[in-house]
Design brief:
Aminopeptidase; globular; about 35% helix
C-alpha cells in the first residue's frame, strides 16, 4: 500500500469511496462509536466517510485511515479537522477498531499526526477532547503533552467533556 505518512508500525493514507467496508467496521461498531455520539446507522457511516473524503480537498487533511505496516490491516483512523474558524488551529482525533485497543497504537498514530500538524501544516496549536468515560483517550492525550483546559459541550454526543490544548515545543519556550 502507498502511504503518505508512516510511524514505526502504522501507515496513513486518504479515505476513498471504496473504503466503505472499512468505515463500517470502524464507525459502524457500536462500542467504537458509543463515545463519539453513536451508535451510527449505515447511512450515518456513509455520510461520515463522505465528509472525510471531502476534507481531503478542503481543508486538505482528514481523520486518515491507518493500517499496520506489517500486513496492511486496517486499525482505525487518526488525523485532524479544522477547529472552529481559527486558522492554523486543528482538532486532533483518533478512533481505533476494537481489535487494536490497548496496543499503544493510538499514541503512536497521534504522535505522527502531531508531528505532521506542526511540521508540515504549520499548526500553532492543537485541540482535543474525549468523552468523560474514555479514560484511555485521556491517558493518550496526557502522555502526548496535551494540557487540560476545562470542560466543553461536544455537540455530536450532547456530553460535556474534558478538553485539552497542545502547542508546538518552540512556542512554549518563548
Amino acid at each position: 500500500m502507498d502511504y503518505f505518512l508512516k510511524s514505526q508500525r502504522l501507515g496513513f493514507r486518504c479515505w476513498q469511496d471504496e473504503d466503505l467496508p472499512l468505515a463500517m467496521k470502524l464507525w459502524g461498531d457500536s462500542e467504537v462509536s458509543a463515545l463519539l455520539g453513536g451508535p451510527f446507522t449505515p447511512e450515518q457511516v456513509r455520510e461520515r466517510l463522505q465528509q472525510e473524503i471531502e476534507r481531503k480537498h478542503n481543508p486538505g487533511f482528514q481523520y486518515w485511515p491507518i493500517f499496520l505496516l506489517d500486513g496492511d490491516s486496517h486499525a482505525g483512523c487518526a488525523g485532524l479537522k479544522p477547529w472552529r474558524d481559527e486558522p492554523l488551529i486543528y482538532e486532533l482525533g483518533f478512533h481505533l477498531r476494537r481489535d487494536f485497543w490497548g496496543q499503544g497504537l493510538a499514541t503512536e498514530a497521534a504522535r505522527a499526526v502531531i508531528e505532521y500538524a506542526f511540521g508540515t501544516l504549520g499548526a500553532v496549536a492543537l485541540f482535543a477532547g474525549h468523552h468523560p468515560a474514555n479514560r484511555a483517550s485521556r491517558q493518550v492525550l496526557l502522555k502526548l503533552g496535551f494540557a487540560y483546559a476545562g470542560m466543553e459541550l461536544y455537540p455530536p454526543s450532547g456530553v460535556v467533556e474534558p478538553v485539552y490544548w497542545l502547542r508546538p515545543p518552540q512556542a512554549e519556550a518563548k
